[in-house]
Amino acid sequence: MTRDDLPGRGQPGAPAAFGLRAAARIIDLVIVLLPANALAAAVGNTTDGRFQAPVWVLLVFPITFVVYETVLVSRSGQTFGKLLCRLRVVEWRNGDLPTLREAFFRAMVPGVFLFGYLMFPPMLLLLPLVYLSSIADRLQRGIHDKVADTIELYSPPLVRERPAE
């Protein structure tokens, strides 16, 4: 499949625009961050002006992100952010929903940087490169899409025509 096989920008089935992809990712990060931060606040405490929490709390966000992304993308091709932005992830070679394995690998590419942040905080600065890599690709496929052999497409809701009166 090539870019010429897909519809033009803004049409159903066209490669998703970077701005929509970024908006969907921000929505998804907020959805995952809010409960993770609430948990951290519930189990942590502030001593001498510093927040302290058990080490396992640091794993909640990356694990939740990977599970959220994997389950939703493998079941429907959409996370809540993608649903709101009218995007859908499909297999590159045939347009089917990604398998659980493909969705997991797609989530783990950015997830590696989230887990790596725990050991080496500057690693988090590399995370935007995963998503920015889609700008340089003609099909708007980021590194995570290429690893999982997926593509994110614009998928507006179906419009039902009114029956003739």
Tally of distinct domains: 1
Class by alpha and beta content: mainly alpha
Low-confidence stretches: none
Biggest sheet architecture = 2 strands, antiparallel
The counted number of beta strands is 4
Distance between the termini: 42 Å
Order of helices and strands: HEEHHEHHHE
Helix percent reads 40-55%
Strand percentage lies at: 5-15%
Assembly state here? single chain
The overall pLDDT, averaged over residues, is: 87
> Helical element count?
6
Strand order of the largest sheet: 1-2
How big is the Rg? 18 Å
Shape: elongated
Outline the structure in words.
51% of the residues lie in helices and 10% in strands. The N and C termini lie far apart (42 Å). The chain has one domain (12-44, 53-154). The chain has helices at residues 18-43, 56-76, 80-84, 100-119, 127-132, 143-148, and strands at 45-47, 50-52, 87-91, 150-154. With 165 residues, the chain is mainly alpha-helical.
Q: Which descriptors would you attach to this protein?
A:
two-stranded antiparallel sheet, mainly alpha
Summarize the SSE layout with pairings.
Layout: H1 18-43, E1 45-47, E2 50-52, H2 56-76, H3 80-84, E3 87-91, H4 100-119, H5 127-132, H6 143-148, E4 150-154
Antiparallel strand pairs: 1-2, 3-4
Helix pairs in contact: 1-2, 2-4
